[in-house]
Amino acid sequence: MNTSEAIRARRSIRKYKKGTVIPKEHIHQMLEAAMMAPSACNTRPWEFVVVETEEIREQIMKSHPYTQMLKTASLAIVVCGRPDLQESVCAGFWPQDCGAAIQNLLLQAKELGYGTCWCGCYPVMERVKELQEILSVTSQPLAVIAVGEADEEPAARGFYDETRVKFL
């Protein structure tokens, strides 16, 4: 699958085949792709928490109402921002940088044959604080990414809309 195909085939998956085990090698490939994303001044203001245990996924689902697909997903990858890494240079761009990392992760997962769903956390600070406690992190949880073997094939929802383009 090339990049163009992955972009057009990627979907937000909310139903997964329960019990699918994702090999560590594939998890590593997804995280490596995420960390290849561009970032302001190459500060790489991110860290990742891979949640494989059902117990912690349950806690996440209780604190974040839009993560119920974690019941059947194989794992969650929580993308956390590190604004502290940008304090002295390029401050404030960490949400954009983490967003680029997330998109790389989603596309790599698709190429590997997995479905994903991006569930936002930041800037809803109540969710951020609860996830910090659950995950024992001081970084800012920006998103919870569900990953697993898709058990649905939703139609594409994205499309080209030329009314949102201006050529100068």
From TrEMBL:
* SUPFAM superfamilies noted in UniProt: FMN-dependent nitroreductase-like
Query: What are the UniProt keywords, alphabetically?
Result: Flavoprotein, FMN, Oxidoreductase
EC number(s): the record gives 1.-.-.-
Q: Which cofactor does it need?
A: FMN
The answer to whether the entry has keyword Flavoprotein is yes
Per UniProt, the enzyme's principal EC class comes to oxidoreductase
Nitroreductase domain segment(s): 7-61, 95-148
Enumerate the Gene3D superfamilies for this protein. NADH Oxidase (3.40.109.10)
Picking any one GO molecular function of the record gives: oxidoreductase activity
Q: Which InterPro entries match?
A: Nitroreductase, Nitroreductase-like
Q: Which family does it belong to?
A: Belongs to the nitroreductase family.
Q: Do you know which PANTHER family this protein is assigned to?
A: NAD(P)H NITROREDUCTASE YDGI-RELATED, NITROREDUCTASE
Name-wise, this protein is Nitroreductase
